[in-house]
Amino acid sequence: MIKKVSRNEDLHDVLIVGGGPAGLIAATEAVRAGAKALVVEEDPEIGSPDHCAGLVSKEGLEKIIEPTPAFVLSRINRARIYAPSGKMYEGKTEGVKALVIDRTRFDKELLRRAEANGVEVVTNQPYKPELRCKVLINAEGTKGRLAKRLNLSIPRSIPAAQLDIEVKDFERDVVELHTGEWAPGFFAWVVPRGDHVRVGLASYEGVPLELLKRMLEKNRNFERMKGARVLRTIAGKVVVGGPLRHTVRGNAIAVGDAGGFAKPTTGGGVVLGGLTAKLAGRAATEAVLRGGTLERFDVEWRALYGREFQTMRLAARIFRNMREGELERALRISSEEGVLGLLTGYDMDLQGAAVGRVLRSRLIRCAVLPFLRSLF
């Protein structure tokens, strides 16, 4: 339901621009800490349109909200990684380590909880300067319109494209990653979503949708999808640069994709965006009600997750500069040493420990040349 926005002359404690997960979580935390919060969302409906593949770590999601069948589509315990040559390597975990969520239902559940806690949410309402507030939380995603107004940077991102394809016999417990020329500098993915799969691709070069269609047509590992019905085409962006250097500016905080709080390795931002948004909501309330400073947010997220982001940024940099032969060798070694299976068992959202495991294996040799290459 579309609600009318509060009177422009009202001075809101905390104004959140953007009704995605980060915005709703930050608003809920602010209200729980004692502030009054208003969320304005420019789209007519929370959770729509859905641009997310929906793959999150089970452990990470549980720190934000209890997973329920209402929005969990698949439970993942296997990962297949395809080398540039097409050779497949598989890692398997003892239990479920990742979940595929329906982002529309997930966002609506966050909305329900936010409103139950007293958050005011207004849809079909873009940001207007007349909306006065003590603290503004920018959760606009990658749009950058509000960021420019606030003199905040815009996070680095690359274009992506996805197709929902009707493939009823795809295993529901496995995700696939495809590397090499199909997605220069990044990778392609296949995520099971009940009666269909979401096939996506992001790239530093070329047009993602054209690359995606080419992969489906010419990559022999997609033979099973030829002629399958395409249900939906999705365009978007993947945030790859990590958090902004300055996530606080004046009375404004940037959260979620707007703050760069997505994994530099994969672009996934639901969990880390949500965890850091909690910190932002509490910091905003401290500033409004108890004389605190917004810099508390910057200090806290760096203390808790700064090293994680630095490690993932380094790993992404190395991967991006790997040549196909180097990537083939790295995947072969990871399979021979059993590293791939171990890596699959780590928390896929907090990847610092996984990268540390790689650095203690023979795989470190595969990283030296790509790292040196990235310096020049």
Provide structural commentary.
The protein has 376 residues and is of the alpha/beta class. The chain folds into 3 domains: 12-49 and 102-155 and 242-308, FAD/NAD(P)-binding domain, CATH 3.50.50; 157-239, D-Amino Acid Oxidase, subunit A, domain 2 (D-Amino Acid Oxidase, Chain A, domain 2), CATH 3.30.9; 313-374, no CATH class. The protein is 35% helix and 22% strand. The strands form 3 sheets. The protein has a 7-stranded mixed sheet with strand order 6-5-11-12-13-10-14, sandwiched between helices. The chain has a 6-stranded mixed sheet with strand order 8-2-1-9-16-15. Strands 3-7-4 form a 3-stranded antiparallel sheet. α1 (21-32) links the parallel β1 and β2 (37-40). The longest helix has 26 residues, at 295-320. The radius of gyration is 21 Å and the shape is globular. The model is unreliable at 1-8 (pLDDT under 50).
